[in-house]
Amino acid sequence: MTITQLGYLGLGVGDVAKWEEFASDILGVVISERSDDGSLYLRMDEYHHRFILHPDGADDVAYVGWQTPTKAAFDEVHLNLKNAGVTFRAGTSEELDSRKVMDMISFEDPDGLQTEVFHGALVQPDAAFQPRRPIKGFVTGNMGLGHIVLNVNDLEKGTAFYRDVLGLKISDFVEINRPDRQLKMSFFHCNPRHHSLALASRAAGTQGPRISHFMVEVQSLDDVGATYYLCQEKNVPIATSLGRHTNDHMVSFYMLCPSGFRVEYGCEGRLVDDATWTIQHYTTGSLWGHKPVPASQSSVPAPSSR
Ligand SMILES: [Fe+2]
Predict the structure, then answer these.
(1) Would 5-121 and 141-297 be classified into the same CATH topology?
(2) What is the reported pLDDT for 38?
(3) Which is nearest to 15 in space by CA: 56, 44, 51, 49?
(4) Would you list the domain boundaries of the chain?
């Protein structure tokens, strides 16, 4: 395998101050650095950062950083891109400084999203990670930061690119075809996490952010449940109720971040063993729950006296 984890995400945001509050008080991640240009680095494990927030007002994903474990694997990605006729360039010294990696290349995926492959991420083993609020911590390490789901115009083209050129492996597919909901998705893994990436077909003629959502996984169901109620107490909009997904078995809910897109907060995601994994497909997204929550009902009244 050439790419072994989703290393970092770059987000363009409109309101960095709101994001800082959301990241610290709701997600429980740590602000590890602020740049002179106003960018904010978010830390969730031994890595210096897993997210970089750029104050550009886009409120969308700016770039996705995929990590290779070695220089040899990094070079192999070059070769695969070259053989596929994909134009790429080496990261500039400013970009290497910004991402805090030793080596990086940059190119566009079939939907035009800035995609980066790197090796040699900066870690901070000298300062043990402590979540910003009392949760057990995140499921990261060699499984990367979590997952990202992207809205794409051409699902087949995107699926072929990530599978055949970048070398991610198909986990499974979801195709929902109900009168009230049509959706086709491809799920990819590059380590035991069920998916680090999923692509969702954008309904023809619709527009909106590239990002559907990103997911962070915590170590405890209690932390998912407690965060669900914390969101309601703090008036963070809930997009969908608690539920368990069909394919990755994740117990999660979706909240809206200050940029207006969804963030999935989950636990108990199942692991993929490539020796035994068989690709399947699903016609539903959830075993139970994950019901849309109208904005007017996404916060709870003050606790009763019980
Ligand atoms: Fe998800």
Answers:
(1) yes
(2) 94
(3) 56
(4) 5-121, 141-297
CATH topology of domain 5-121: 2,3-Dihydroxybiphenyl 1,2-Dioxygenase; domain 1 (3.10.180)
CA of 75 to the centre of ligand 1 (A): 30
Inform me whether the pLDDT recorded for 125 exceeds 90: no
Ligand 1 centre to CA of 88 (Å) is 29
The domain at 141-297 falls in which architecture?
Roll (3.10)
User: pLDDT > 70: what percent of the chain?
Assistant: 96
CA 155 to ligand 1 center in whole angstroms: 17
In the reported structure, the alpha carbon of residue 85 is separated from the centroid of ligand 1 by a whole-number distance in angstroms of 31
Which contacts of 179-186 are long-range, i.e. CB under 8 A and separated by 24 or more positions? 183/285, 184/155, 185/149, 185/155, 186/155, 186/158, 186/159, 186/162
pLDDT digits (tens, 9 = 90+) for 173-228: 999 988 888 899 999 999 999 999 999 999 877 889 999 999 999 999 999 999 99
Full-model pTM: 0.95
CA of 254 to the centre of ligand 1 (A): 9
